[in-house]
């Protein structure tokens, strides 16, 4: 199993892997051009309500703050890093996430930025990996919980969501709340996380806080899609967003396209069809969400260029503590 994971990692980083993802994006986009009525899409963009721009900006900054506070609590088990530098790191990472073809770009930059705060690069990478695992588990739990309040969904999809949520709850217990004697040293994929997991288990109150802010962060992410829908005049209950948007983020973790282009739109169209939303409207929500993340990236670019050009802070001056 470990050999397969390593081979896939090497493949998707290679030129053939990049070509595969580019082809995936193109195929998804061609499919949408074939099935969607783009006159409706053009009309929606022509009548966008810019009143929602301010709430979207507010949610963007609240989301970044909650995300930064969660990470501040998480790294606090090892060392103290100021909240403001962490907020800046997330803003800058948002820019690199949009510029590079995957979130790995943003995560890689965060490793270097954490090193500037005297955190060894390997340890910074482990904290980011831990954050990613926690985020994935919280997405499944959030979707599973709110699926109880949504009727009309296909049975197989509901069962799949609930099974994923159930195993995510078990994983959170085993990772973060099980007795300290449980160790992952014999599991190659996550054995390097074992020391951090042991520390977290010894601070259960802090772990509960981290878990709480993880769910708050995911809800703010969902709210961006909801506000984007309202901006385009698409009025739908918030519950479908709480069920389906987390699933979209889970699907985007699959390396099947460049930057999620194409697969994100396909996921929105597929999941929101469960509540009778037209393909055109689901596609518009997807694009609106993408534009909201670009807005986040623009704010991150401002922070980056202010720090790296006006303040002349150079990534090459990073000194790693050993």
List the helices and strands and how they pair.
Blueprint: H1 2-13, H2 15-35, H3 38-46, H4 53-75, H5 83-99, H6 104-116, H7 121-147, H8 155-177, H9 194-201, H10 204-231, H11 238-252, H12 263-272, H13 279-310
- Helix-residue proportion: over 70%
First and last CA, distance: 32 Å
Query: How would you describe the shape?
Result: globular
Structural class: mainly alpha
Number of domains: 1
Structure characterization notes:
- The chain is built from 13 helices and no strands.
- The two termini are 32 Å apart.
- It is globular.
- 36% of the residues are buried.
- It has one domain (49-315).
- Helix 3 (38-46) packs across helix 13 and helix 5 (83-99) packs antiparallel against helix 6.
- With 322 residues, the protein is an all-alpha fold.
- Residues 1-5, 7-13 and 315-322 have low confidence and may be disordered.
């Amino acid at each position: 199993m470990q050999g397969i994971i390593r081979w896939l990692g090497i493949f998707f980083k290679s030129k053939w892997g990049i070509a595969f993802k580019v082809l995936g994006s193109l195929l998804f986009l061609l499919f949408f051009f074939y099935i969607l009525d783009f006159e409706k899409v053009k009309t929606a963009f022509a009548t966008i309500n810019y009143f929602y721009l301010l709430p979207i900006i507010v949610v963007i900054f609240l989301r970044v703050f909650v995300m930064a506070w969660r990470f501040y609590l998480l790294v606090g088990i090892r060392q103290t890093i100021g909240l403001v530098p962490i907020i800046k790191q997330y803003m800058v990472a948002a820019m690199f996430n949009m510029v590079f073809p995957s979130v790995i770009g943003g995560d890689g930059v965060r490793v270097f930025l954490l090193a500037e705060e005297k955190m060894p690069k390997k340890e910074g990478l482990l904290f980011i990996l831990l954050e990613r695992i926690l985020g994935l588990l919280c997405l499944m739990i959030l979707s599973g919980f709110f699926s109880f309040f949504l009727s009309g969904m296909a049975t197989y999809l509901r069962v799949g969501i609930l099974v994923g949520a159930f195993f995510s709850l078990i994983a959170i217990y085993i990772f973060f709340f099980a007795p300290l004697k449980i160790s992952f040293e014999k599991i190659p994929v996550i054995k390097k996380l074992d020391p951090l997991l042991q520390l977290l288990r010894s601070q259960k109150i802090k772990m509960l806080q981290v878990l709480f802010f993880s769910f708050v962060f995911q809800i703010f992410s969902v709210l961006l899609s909801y506000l984007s829908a309202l901006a385009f005049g698409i009025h739908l209950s918030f519950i479908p967003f709480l069920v389906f948007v987390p699933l979209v983020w889970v699907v985007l973790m699959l390396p099947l396209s460049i930057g999620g282009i194409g697969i994100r739109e396909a996921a929105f169209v597929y999941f929101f069809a469960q509540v009778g939303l037209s393909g055109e409207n689901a596609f518009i929500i997807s694009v609106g969400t993408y534009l909201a993340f670009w807005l986040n990236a623009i704010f991150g670019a401002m922070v980056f260029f202010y720090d790296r050009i006006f303040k002349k802070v150079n990534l090459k001056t990073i000194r790693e503590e050993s």
